Structures are given as structure tokens and as C-alpha cells.
Amino acid sequence: MKISRVGILSILVIAFALLTGCSIVNKVRARNELNDGAKAYKERRFDEAEAHFSQAMALDPSEKRTETFMARTLHQQYLTNRAAPENMQKAEQAIAVYKTILADNPNDEATNDAVSGLIAALKGPQALVDWRTARANDERVKPEYRSKALTFLAGEKYNCVNEITEAAKETITKGNEAIFVFKKPANGEDFAKAKQCADDGLALIDKALSLDSTKSSPFSYKASLLVQKSRLAEMEGNSADKEKYKVAAEEPKKRFQDLSAAEAKVKDDEEKRKAEEEAAK
To answer: Quick check: 165 and 194 in contact, CB under 8 A?
Structure first.
């Protein structure tokens, strides 16, 4: 029996309607699963929440909010007992989902902070340095977030040089006053490492400031690294450089103090606003 063109068209229209209807139904079911999962998450029933979010993702993979809820749920399961092997696996799964989210939206800084914490906990400090380095070099990421990553890396370099100079610090009495002096480490490799860390740290912090000079933290590290350069100059017996770096540290120190005070005021004003809103309710 031949089917007319009109008949074929009718079949196609019906098939399309059925497929579209199925898609809409799945989206509705996915939304219900998402809502049920959110409720379970809020009540800290994380295993149940994970099951709901998994089902929601299967029904509607296009709903990106579900990925965020799933990652947070897996993360929380890990935090309930970090030592449990099954929870370590949850953390690995959370890292994978967080990375998927960031691949689509590299400027989701809250997700970056979350995955950074898990990477540090599971894979160690060097893995975190590698992650932050990649973020600092990713031009899709906003300048202020790249600056934040660079500031972290500069902080690691500061820790490197500070550990060496603190170990070489001695206290002497000058008149009635106890003062610190910095002696060159007996191990020449330690001194060379300290100098390299200081130089690398300053290069990183200058790059951070070139991307965003509105935050206090980079200025704090710049001042601290210049102080470290002053210590290293003292170790070499270079009085001129010791004083030069000491003086140079004053400007970023002042910028840090000013910006830090402004940031504290913004935070206080926000807390007062929220308190007033709660009182009004």
C-alpha cells in the first residue's frame, strides 16, 4: 500500500511531536530530581542527594546547575570522613566534575576555589602549584582571577626564601636593645635558592599587579619580598642594597595598609547591611 506525501508528512510531524514531548517530559522530571536532590543536600542526606542529581544529569545533560550540585555533594561526602577510601573516591569524582564546570566557565571562581582545596588535600602542594600556574596562564580567565593565582604562586616563593632567612637569623644585643641580624647560610646552595625564590617571587607579584592592582594581598607580598631582598643583601654584606630594598618596601606596604583598610570597611558595611535586612524581617 502506497503512502501519500501528505501521509508521510503527517507521520514525521507526529514523530517530531512525540520526540519533543519526550524531551519536555525529561526536562520536567530532571527538574524534579534536581529539586529533590537540593532538599536532600540541605538536610545533609548526601547519598540520597547524589542519587537524585545523577538521575537529573541523565535526564537532562544540558542543565549545567546539576553539575554544580553534584560536585558539591561529592565534596561534602568526602568532608564527612576524609580518611575513608570510598570518600577519597568521591573527592576524585568531585575534582573531575569541578574541572568540567571550569572548562565551560573558566571564570567560576567559587568552583576554582573548591577544586583547589581538593587538589591540595588529595594530590599535594606541587599539584596545587601546577593547577594555579595553569590558571595564571589561561587567558580565558579574567585578569583579577589570574592575578589571584599569581599572588598565590608569589606567596609560595616568599615561603621558600623566608624559611631560609629565618633559619639564618640571629639575635644580638646592641646597647640595651636586642636586634636581629642575618648571617649567610653555611650551605651555599641554600643561599642561592633563597635568592632565586626572592627574584621569582617579585617577578610573579609584579605580573599579578599588572593584571589587577586593586587588591591588598599582592602589595603585602611585594613589601614582604622586598624585605627578604634586604635580608639577603645583609647576608652578603651589601649595606647599600640592604637599605635600598628596605626603603623600597615602604611604598607597597603603605598601599597594602590603605587597601586593606578600605576592604575592611566594605566588609563591615556589608555585614551591617545584612544585619539591618535581617532586623527588618
So the answer is: yes
Average pLDDT over residues 4-24: 53
Q: How far apart are CA 49 and CA 59, in angstroms?
A: 15
Cross-strand bridge partners of residue 173 = 178
Cell of 48: 540520597
Sequence-ordered list of residues with C-beta below 8 angstroms from that of 171, at least 6 positions apart, any chain: 178, 179, 180, 181
CA angle 240, 257, 203 (to 5 degrees): 55
Which residues touch 190 (CB under 8 Å, ≥6 apart)? 164
Are 63 and 33 in contact, with CB atoms under 8 Å apart? no
Residues 132 and 157 sit within 8 Å (Cβ to Cβ): no
Sign of the Cα torsion 216, 222, 228, 230 reads negative
Q: How far is Cα 148 from Cα 140, in angstroms, rounded to an integer?
A: 14
Spatial distance between the Cα atoms of 164 and 184, rounded to a whole number of angstroms: 10
**CA pair distance 57, 105, nearest whole angstrom:** 18
CA dihedral 3, 9, 12, 18 (to 10 degrees): -110
How is residue 215 written as a grid cell? 587588591
Geometric angle at alpha carbon 154, from 105 and 263, rounded to 5°: 70
> What is the per-residue pLDDT across 137-173, written as a single tens digit (0 to 9) for each?
999 999 999 999 999 999 999 999 999 999 999 988 8
Name the strand (E) or helix (H) holding 178.
Answer: strand 177-182
- C-alpha count within 13 angstroms, C-beta hemisphere, residue 249: 17
